[in-house]
Amino acid sequence: MAEVTYRRGDRDDRPWGRWEVLDTGDGFAVKRISVDPGAILSLQLHHHREEHWIVARGRARVTRGEEVLELDRSQSVFIPVGTAHRIENPGEEMLELIEVQIGDQLDENDIVRLEDRYGRR
């Protein structure tokens, strides 16, 4: 059985915006991620989960390994386990993503920050 410590309704404000847990189950969690205009999340990787991101509103610049992708509304991207990744909002409106995490450990402890504009580790 997977370890999922997220609970529906969990949320957190971050320097770049906020996230909220929409649903969880055995081995999965679904989050809404809202990224402020001009903001960027840390370059990070996860050892225990893969992620699927779907752009619901706005435009996303996604780093996935060595690739940089530009995604518009309704486009999606898959982030494999262990792959360095980040999201940036290059636009002037709020960016909203739906993130589906799948793995055997789903919590904030499975974040390895490689680079962070806001000085977090």
Which homologous superfamily in CATH is the superfamily?
Jelly Rolls
Count of DSSP strands:
13
CATH topology: Jelly Rolls
The oligomeric status of these chains comes to single chain
* Secondary structural class: mainly beta
Strand order of the largest sheet: 2-3-4-11-6-9
C-alpha end-to-end distance: 29 Å
User: Which bin fits the share of residues in helices?
Assistant: under 10%
In CATH, the architecture is Sandwich
Looking at the structure, what is the overall shape?
globular
* Count of individual helical segments: 0
In the residues, how many domains can be counted?
A: 1
Rounded mean pLDDT is 95
Unreliably modeled segments: none
**How big is the Rg?**
13 Å
Secondary-structure element order, N to C: EEEEEEEEEEEEE
Keywords: Isomerase
Protein name: Phosphomannose isomerase type II C-terminal cupin domain
GO molecular function, one term: isomerase activity
Organism: Benzoatithermus flavus
Briefly say what this structure is.
This protein is an all-beta fold and 121 residues long.
General description of the model:
The protein is mainly beta. The chain has a single domain (3-115), classed as Sandwich (Jelly Rolls). The chain contains no helices and 13 strands. It has strands spanning 3-4, 11-14, 17-25, 28-35, 43-45, 49-57, 60-64, 67-71, 76-79, 85-88, 95-103, 105-106, 112-115. The strands form 4 sheets. Strands 2-3-4-11-6-9 form a 6-stranded antiparallel sheet, with no helix packed on it. The chain has a 3-stranded antiparallel sheet with strand order 8-7-10, with no helix packed on it. The protein has a two-stranded parallel ribbon with strand order 1-12. A hairpin with a 2-residue loop joins strand 2 and strand 3. The protein starts with a strand and ends in a 6-residue tail after the last strand. The model has no long low-confidence stretch (mean pLDDT 95).
